[in-house]
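Practice problem: predict the structure.
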Amino acid sequence: MAIDDIATVTDLQTPMTRSSSAPDSPGVIVFPPLLYVGTLLLGLGIHLLRPMHLASWALWVRIIGAVLVVASGALSRWASGTMRRAGTNVLPNKPTLNIVTDGPFRFSRNPLYVAGALLYLGLTLICNSAWPLVLFVPLLVVLDWGVVRREERYLEAKFGDPYRAYKARVRRWL
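Answer:
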C-alpha cells in the first residue's frame, strides 16, 4: 500500500465514561518532542563538560546518524499525514477522534515516538557523543510511563473493545 493511500480508520465516536468536566485527552506528563529535545540537550551539555565519544573515527558514526535522521523524518511525515487523513489530532493534548490502523500504524501503535527515538539516536551519532546514549533508556522509561501508557488507558476508556483488538494485533513499538 502506498504512503499516500487513504487511511483505514475505525471511526468510533463512542463517548467516554468520564465526568463532563474531565478533559478529553490522555493527560500525558510531558509533550513528547520536549522530552526528546530536553534529554538530548542534557546529554550534549554533559558532553561539553566531560566529553565521551562513541568512536574515535567518527565518519561512519555520523553517516549512520544521518541515515537515522532521514528515516525519522520519513516515518514522522508518514505517520502524521496518516493521522491527518484519518481525521484525528496529532497532538497528544487534543482529543483522539479515531483509531488509526493504516500506514505505519499497521506495524507500531506509536510510530511518531519511534520516529522521535530514531531522530534522537541519529543526532546522538552525528554529534558522536555517548552521553545522550546513556540517557536514552531513562528517556524511554519516562516516555513509556508518562506518555504511552496514559495514552493507552485513555484510548481503552474512549474506544473500548475495538482499541483492545487493535492493541492485541499491533505491537507497541516495533
